[in-house]
Design brief:
Layout: E1 3-6, E2 9-12, E3 15-16, H1 17-24, E4 28-32, H2 33-49, E5 54-59, H3 66-74, E6 78-81, H4 84-92, E7 100-102, H5 109-118, E8 122-125, H6 128-137, E9 142-149, E10 171-172, H7 177-187, E11 191-197, H8 208-223, E12 230-232, H9 250-268, E13 274-277, H10 281-284, E14 288-300, E15 304-309, H11 318-322, E16 328-330, E17 338-344, E18 353-361, E19 369-373, E20 393-397, E21 402-406, H12 411-414
Parallel strand pairs: 4-20, 5-6, 5-13, 6-7, 7-8, 8-9, 9-10, 9-11, 11-12, 12-13, 15-17
Antiparallel strand pairs: 1-2, 2-3, 4-14, 14-15, 14-19, 16-19, 17-18, 20-21
Helix pairs in contact: 2-9, 8-9
Bound molecules: pyridoxal-5'-phosphate.
């Protein structure tokens, strides 16, 4: 995010965060719209330069909303959904159903019906059982990819590793189950086998797992005498949360991935496939910042200091869930120097932490604003109403204006479905 201090006030694209937070309230998710667009364009550029037939599908689960989906359509992105709700959101935004792909390790019959009725472009089959399910519901032909498991280990948190042999996702290329599913698809009446998909994991910082997967996949395709039109390499391109993190190098990484693909296709005598990728986090994470207001500050003499903010694990789950690290900075910079503190949420759990041992302004006081950087992905989308907390508002900021994208939940909405 283009966050910078102007006259000691944190701003996005030149717009001060104090005024934005005053207008929309806190906690508030603020997105740099220019940055979301420039990430989309960066992926387009590098794949175009590789001279490939390609498409880029944004993974809705990172963050979705009607305005987000409209922006993605403007940026010529396609869309991945993993539930009826994500598909509904995309359709309400007027997104072309042909450009939507349905993922998930347990699509329900109702979801498959809804997807087919809406004219979805592609379903990614995740299990053998799904072939019969889709075949029994479909009335016309439906293009499918098969989610395979290439069995490559990746160096990331175990909850976000997905391409290893022991996984709830996809079918192994090593034990014959992927090939069995391909045969079942080809024998079905309505499923049209277009190619394969894999997703190796999330927050990957180098191209090496992608290169290893390509090797494994092409050798398997060749051994199995299997032709594909589409090769979907998934998402998982890492972002920078804190100084020590290594961002996936999109330009050089994709030059090396596409170079490898071309060499392997030639080596095994395959035409180049239509290449799909599915970035989520790397499109949106660094474009987002959460702004909170400071409340209670508690000093435990000789031990530590706790700074409580007006949100927490209801809008920031990744620290409790993965022990993820974040940078927390003041919206208004002062001259008073820093002190160490634990910045914590207001929910009734000791694990409700934004960050431990962080440097915060020594003169921080109730009413001051703190910004948590790189919260654009898997924050709002993982938000809950735990403790009956209302979900925060979301705004997009470009150089011209700040525009509301999602309104703050109201108290009334918290009991909207309650039987009174
Ligand atoms: C989560 C997911 C993605 C996106 O992952 P990011 O780490 O956000 O890029 C892409 N494809 C599939 C199938 C996924 O499950």
């Amino acid at each position: 995010m283009t966050l910078e201090y102007i006259n000691n006030e944190l701003s996005v694209n030149g717009n001060g965060l104090t005024g934005i937070a005053r207008e929309y309230g806190t906690p508030l998710f603020v997105y740099d719209e220019n940055m979301i667009r420039s990430q989309c364009r960066k992926y387009h550029r590098v794949l175009e330069e590789a001279g490939l037939d390609y498409s880029i599908s944004y993974a809705s689960k990172a963050f979705t909303s009607v305005q987000m989906v409209k922006l993605l359509a403007e940026e010529k992105m396609k869309l991945d959904v993993v539930s009826q709700g994500e598909l509904y959101t995309a359709l309400k935004a007027g997104f072309n159903a042909r450009d939507i792909h349905f993922h998930g390790n347990n699509k329900t019959a109702q979801e498959v019906e809804y997807a087919l009725a809406s004219g979805i472009g592609l379903i990614v089959v995740d299990a053998l059982d799904e072939v019969a399910l889709i075949d029994s519901i479909a009335t016309g032909k439906i293009d499918v990819l098969l989610r395979i498991n290439p069995g490559v280990d990746v160096d990331t948190h175990e909850f976000i590793q997905t391409g290893q042999e022991d996984s709830k996702f996809g079918l192994s290329i090593h034990n014959g189950s992927a090939l069995e599913a391909v045969d079942a698809i080809k024998e079905s009446r309505h499923l049209n086998f277009r190619g394969i998909h894999y997703h190796l994991g999330s927050q990957l910082s180098t191209e090496s797992p992608f290169l290893n997967a390509l090797e494994a996949v092409y050798s398997w395709l060749s051994d199995s005498s299997l032709d594909i039109e589409v090769l979907n390499m998934g998402g998982g391109y890492g972002v920078k949360y804190v100084e020590d993190d290594r961002r996936f190098p999109i330009e050089s990484g994709f030059r090396s991935i596409t170079g490898k693909l071309k060499r392997l296709a030639e080596k095994y005598g395959y035409p180049l496939p239509h290449v799909m990728i599915e970035p989520g986090r790397s499109i949106i994470a660094e474009a987002g910042t959460t702004v909170y207001e400071v409340g209670v500050i508690k000093e435990i003499p000789g031990i530590t200091k706790y700074v409580s903010i007006d949100g927490g694990m209801s809008d920031h789950l990744r620290t409790p869930l993965y022990d993820a690290q974040y940078e927390v900075i003041p919206v208004n910079r002062t001259e008073g120097g820093d002190t160490e503190a634990n910045v914590v949420g207001k929910l009734c759990e000791s694990g409700d932490i934004i960050g431990k041992h962080l440097a915060v302004p020594a003169d921080l006081k109730r009413g001051d604003l703190l910004a948590v950087k790189t919260t654009g992905a898997y924050h709002y989308s993982m938000a809950s109403n735990y403790n009956q907390m209302a979900k925060p508002a979301v705004v997009f900021v470009d150089d011209q204006e700040t525009r509301p994208v999602i309104r703050r939940q109201t108290l009334g909405q918290l009991i909207e479905n309650d039987v009174l």
